Please model this.
Amino acid sequence: MSKDIRVRFAPSPTGPLHMGGVRTALYNYLFAKKKGGKFILRLEDTDQTRFVGGAEKYILESLAWCGISPNEGLGSEEQPYGPYRQSERKEIYRQYADQLLESGHAYYAFDTSEELENMRERLKAAGNPSPQYNAITRTSMKNSLSLSAEEVEKRLAAGDPYVIRVKMPRNEEVKFEDIIRGVVVVNTQNLDDKVLFKSDGMPTYHLANIVDDHLMKISHVIRGEEWLPSAPLHVLLYQFLGWDRPEFAHLPLILKPDGNGKLSKRDGDRLGFPVFPLVWENPETGEEASGYRESGYYPEAFVNMMAFLGWNPGTEQEIFDLEGLVEAFDLDRVGKAGARFDPDKTRWFNQQHLRQRTDAELAEELKPMILEAGLNVPERELEEMVGLLKERATFLKEMIQEGAYFFQSPKEYDAKTVSKKWKEDSPALLADLRDELQEIEDWSSENIEARFKAFMEAKEIGFGKIGPVFRLALTGKGMGPSLFDISALLGKEEVMNRLNAGIENIEK
Ligand code: GLU
Model:
């Protein structure tokens, strides 16, 4: 019988969601959609010391921006296995810790932090670089395996603080199949007696995670590689509790652009690109970290780029919308090797998605931005202007910066071009050109071009002498789309005005 596909994204609200988190959410979403399953959002907030206000809202907003909102759990009306915040599920976990205590797979430990510290110091001094609470060291610590039953009873009755630890078997192979990594085998000698239940009455991540995945009927756990070392413990816990376990898929790391190490939250603006989907203001310091949304990226370009960080469709196709990704996605095509993040490629994705839009769509998107910049929206010609600007733009906002001359007459003239191209006879030449163009009756790009060429011939001058000068007066810039197309779109009267203003105002 095939199981219902149910996957979860289970972030901890310890700060803003970073790119790695978005990628995990995205792969879960794509997998669920492809298989007609559920994509569930659960908040793993059992560690109250690391809680950051605003993080949950940020996570929901980021997923919504990417278009990958959950269809069960937080952010969704559908909540059949709620609550979906672990802090609100506190009562649920204890019984499973008790079950493990009863079956002998867990035990009470009463050690104070000082005693734990002493143990570590002692072992380090004896030459053990990474001391652990495990099958060997537990015998010399204060726990229900080393103390007498009466002593344990007495301590519990007296309300002494304790934690519950897993009793890791001494020398056993834990073996499981990871969808991405294949067979993983770990000997329990390399695992420690992790705390499952804390003295504050809260479960740790390990216990809460598997209890919830079980109760929420999760079929596949798709998460970052940093959780691979925890997977053997999780496999054992499922076994100890007598539960079937979900399948595992551990996603490859996202590496820094130079390939040296994992891309971290702190790399963000330090390396000159955002690592967060949305801008994030640290509630404690007020410091701001930039986001892809605010930097002008299209969510579909961001998502397209993220999908390729660790996966490829096995074809040449690189540009996908979300639906296309759902169609093409397969965990079998997710690699094991770390995926190097490439900020240039990220910009390229945005450029490609911008070009995919029709001129009419771009014009609609630009309108509010033009108004916001305090410029005029030329209703009739905007679409054609967009058509001219689109080829040179990577971001929408660049179209406004680069094409500002479409929306207002030039306020200044590019100094470099002026110093190179503006000559003593330039004002007189421009005046003659103005008079020539004035004659045109049918103001079209072709007619303007024909007149302009005839003018150059009559004057026996090359394009280099008049072209840049004409462009300066028209746009204030040294480069840009076809002068004749620009002129046609600006209209005759406006071109005349700009030529007059240029003759008057351009100075070396
Ligand atoms: N709460 C964990 C995190 O913050 C989730 C790990 C998992 O998916 O099991 O990444």
User: Anything to note?
Assistant: The chain has five domains: 6-76+209-255, 90-205, 268-353, 357-406, 415-505. Residues 10-12, 44, 205, 209, 223, 227 surround glutamic acid (CB under 6 Å). The mean pLDDT is 96. The first strand starts at residue 6 and ends at 9.
